[in-house]
Amino acid sequence: METWVFVSIVFAGLLGWFALTREMPARYRKKNMLTGGERDFYFRLRNALPECHVCPKVAVSALVEPAGMGKLRQQAVNALGGKRVGYAVFDGDMELLAVVELAHRSRPTRLERMREACFASAGIRTLRFPAKRLPSEARIRSSIFDRRSARSSPDVRPAADKELEFRKTPWRNTANAHL
């Protein structure tokens, strides 16, 4: 009798183990591409630039490619992998005019500044607009087509970046360490 109980417990355990470890097919659900504010900004960009193509959530690797060879190139490829920009604005001939970002912070992070420097070295302008105060269509249009901001100098920033400008503060000895 005890043998039958033991065998049935082991058999039930094995059945349970097989049932739980069986591979289930992956399930998916539909995901919204743009959230509320991003969606509003997309339509504002489209209305402001009717002759342009506005593409949201574009991979950085589709817009720029590291130059050179060897280890540095591979590091640059790895740094760009999986990153996306908010919006890419192309003219009628599908030439990239600018990359537009919707800024959720008051100033760009270090990674965002590095990515902007990457775009600047490729001759691509990056425009940042605050998410809390979406710009007017006229301001978007003037920022995209303003030829003064088309210069590739890193010190020249588009008008939209003036309010998000990063000012480097001098280093202070906040620890009061007297060495």
The CATH level-2 architecture of the domain at 36-149 is identified as: 3-Layer(aba) Sandwich
Low-confidence spans: pLDDT under 50, at least 5 residues?
A: 148-167
User: What is the N-to-C succession of helices and strands?
Assistant: HHEHEEHEH
Through-space gap between termini: 82 Å
Shape: elongated
Which strands sit side by side, in order, in the main sheet? 1-2-3-4
> What CATH first level of the domain at 36-149 would be assigned?
Alpha Beta
Counting H and I runs of at least 4 residues, what is the number of helices? Answer: 5
Strand-residue proportion: 15-25%
Which structural class best describes the helix and strand composition? Answer: alpha+beta
Helix content: 25-40%
Mean pLDDT: 80
Describe the structure.
It is a single chain. The chain has a domain at 36-149: Trna Endonuclease, Chain: A, domain 1. β2 and β3 form a beta hairpin. The protein is an alpha+beta fold and 179 residues long. The chain starts with a helix and ends in a 34-residue tail after the last helix. A 4-stranded mixed β-sheet has the order 1-2-3-4, sandwiched between helices. It is elongated, with a radius of gyration of 26 Å. The protein contains 5 helices and 4 strands.
